Amino acid sequence: MNPTSWKDYQKQIPDDHFFFVRSCIRQSLFPGAESAMLRIMKDFLHKDVYEDPRHTTCTGIGYHSDVVLLETIMTVVARQLALMTEAGYKNLLVSCVTSFGIYLEIFEMWHNFPEKLEDTRQSLLRATGREFEIPESIVHTSDVIYHFRDEIAAFSNLRLVNAESGLPLKAVEHVGCHYAKIFPSGGFGGAEFPFVLSGLIESWGGEVIDYPERRHCCGFGFRQYLLRENRGYSLSNSKIKFESMAPYQPDFILTNCPGCNMFLDRWQYTLAEMEGKTYDKGGLGIPVLTHEELAGIMLGMDPWKLGLQMHQVQVETLLDKLGYNYSKKEKYYIAGKPTVLPQKPSVLLV
Amino acid sequence: MSSLYAQLQSDIRFQEGLTACMNCGVCTAICPAAAYYDYDPREICQEVQSQDEQTLIHLLKSDTIWMCGQCLSCKTRCPRDNTPGYIISALRTLSQQTGYFAHSRMGRQQLRIKRTVGESILKEGYCVHPKLLVPAEHPEQGPVWQWALDHGKELFAQLGSNYYEEGEGGVRKIDDQTLGELNAIFSETGGLDFFDRIEEGMKNRPAAEENQDSLF
């Protein structure tokens, strides 16, 4: 019988001992989010999370833009697993949603085609002298934040409510396609009822807004974004989402995929420049946060150490609605000193 | 040389991606690429199922196979457990292996992806890293990205990263031994030869296509 509700798509999350692999996009565009993730796990939850500096890209962006062969990405993934095996870990904690999908896809291919697994073992051994074991569990960082959502809330006096009105803040969530559309059983709530982000919002006091294009792709498209002349694809797909969510006047957007986070932030700026239009009433855009960033806010972290100043759409409207204690003037400070401010966009207010 | 269909069948993504398509069109209905381009994954499934060599050559030389965005929404929706997105991956690999990619404008774009993302993997250990996102090529990143790059080392340090320095942390410099292992993996698995095929395919592209588009 096919699963019929999100409750049929539950997954087990290990409580401790994770081998952490970074995201190319997240560490480049939202570096504070990954740092916050590690800080939450280590300093607040007191979990054992290990990062081996010898781990690399999984090559997923190259693979999905078709310049990296399947056999190559399988062996690069195998090398990551070899580092994990050597360090004595069995739980893989993945920052990137593209990587998360890659790991699940490769594990399934190895299961369905055992000869490919053996070929990969031999390729890795010949190329690096390394050997590996298949992890006992693979989880995305949003799975872990969801898993520990109540513990995180217990550290916080903050709720996702408007400090003035006391009403829940309205949030739209966008779950990355490769989190659960490829392998629904790999994500909380599957592809039909993804709960990994909406569960966070609801647990922390906010209101999740359903909107018609909620499950539409952000439009990354890999080669469709990488090449400048193809970017209309990416922009157009995000625009479909903005047009669909705007009537509901969301207070913020929550994402779990680094690419989605970048596009839903940057394309608002681009659309404002191209069309003179923003998707909120005040001309400031809709703030876009990742799951780690929102968890960091719940835990009272300094937004400028979370890296929220690297978002092109300002986040102050959200912080102010929350009644959050932060320094507006220090947004573009570095090492305690002011810098020359970024140039202002011509339309989007910052 | 075996037939193109036999070569496709040797790709496990093709085996997993095409089980028994009944051409219902649900994949096209859900497909973001079909909403943007003149693109129809249902039609591609129909064409590959024909197993006709000339039809496959036409497909491999076309822009069509390069329009998919690899979101894989089609995998979720297909009532017969087909994955047109996987079929596209197999077609794109074969198109580059045979050199047919150089016959189409969108196929020829692969050279730039190879020279940017592909070579970044071997040189930096990442598909994407901050210095690859040059503002002139990425105006969509906005003025805040120029500011971030202007203050890269200090800003990233403030955010807990290890900006192009050796050791643990985000956007760290990947050590030479690790890069050597990555290069050895690419060599062992045919990844470097595949890069060469892309370069060679562009050198051998049809004369009529010579001046149709610039490399950069």
Mean pLDDT of chain A: 96
Strand order of the largest sheet of chain A: 2-1-3-4
Strand tally of chain A = 10
Annotated CATH homologous superfamily of the largest domain in chain B: Alpha-helical ferredoxin
| Beta-strand segment tally of chain B | 0
What structural class do you assign from the helix and strand content of chain B? mainly alpha
- Report the uncertain regions of chain B: none
The CATH level-2 architecture of the largest domain in chain B is identified as Orthogonal Bundle
Major β-sheet profile of chain B: none
Structural class of chain A: alpha/beta
**C-alpha geometry of chain A:** globular
What is the class of the largest domain in chain B in the CATH system? Mainly Alpha
Structural overview:
The complex is a heterodimer of chains A (350) and B (216). Chain A has 350 residues and is of the alpha/beta class. Chain A has two domains: 14-141, Glutathione S-transferase Yfyf (Class Pi), Chain A, domain 2; 155-338, Rossmann fold, CATH 3.40.50. Chain A is 43% helix and 9% strand. Chain A is built from 15 helices and ten strands. Chain A has helices spanning 24-29, 31-44, 60-64, 70-87, 97-112, 114-128, 141-147, 149-154, 177-180, 198-203, 223-226, 231-245, 258-275, 291-298, 316-322; strands at 18-21, 49-50, 91-94, 137-140, 170-174, 207-208, 252-255, 288-290, 333-334, 337-338. Chain A has a four-stranded parallel β-sheet with strand order 2-1-3-4. In chain A, strands 6-5-7-8 form a four-stranded parallel β-sheet. In chain A, helix 13 (258-275) links the parallel strand 7 and strand 8 (288-290). In chain A, helix 2 (31-44) crosses helix 14 (291-298). The longest helix of chain A has 18 residues, at 70-87. Chain A is globular. Chain B has 216 residues and is mostly helical. Chain B has two domains: 4-107, Alpha-helical ferredoxin (Fumarate Reductase Iron-sulfur Protein, Chain B, domain 2); 111-206, no CATH class. Chain B is built from 14 helices and no strands. The two termini of chain B are 34 Å apart. The mean pLDDT of chain B is 95. The chains are: A alpha/beta (350), B mainly alpha (216). Chains A and B meet through helix 1, helix 2, helix 3, helix 4 and helix 5 of A and helix 2, helix 4, helix 7, helix 8 and helix 10 of B.
